[in-house]
Amino acid sequence: MAETLSGKLDPRMKNVWRLTDSLSVLGVGGGVGALQLAVALVANNGAFAFSLADPLGILLFIDAVVTLAALVAVLTAIPAVRYARWRYGISNEYLQIERGIIWRHHTVIPFIRVQDTDTKQGPVLRVFKLASVTVSTAAGAHEIPGLTVPEAEDLRQRTAELARLAHEDV
Q1: What is the mean pLDDT of residues 101-108?
Q2: Reported pTM
Q3: If you classify domain 87-168 with CATH, what class do you get?
């Protein structure tokens, strides 16, 4: 199991992550900011003038700075590092997946344990002409995102065939 994992995601997956993570950051940052603004309006009887002398103004400013910093991170550094750390490999006995930036995950899935394989393509992946492969076991589902549609179909077919062969050998 020490072989090099040669499977890589399509480079367009970085753009998928940029888009989805940016929407998440803006949703959370905007939601927190809206909640803080609502509290400020209620606390001041509907009249709120932004001021760094006001504690609620300071909180709004901190929220804006944190949201902006997170947005810069998810648009620049994080997708590149995440992409560089994503690998998968397939042999006749098992599928391996390595991923993670801070917490590294190395998953080995023996084909004898595979119950189902599937490809899926949500609206964002469809825009980028990508798909993902999901391999399900009794322990849960394991996803390989960001493959071209033909690659995803080939990986799903190969995984299903190797799982079928592993079950026949038992």
Answers
A1: 93
A2: 0.85
A3: mainly beta
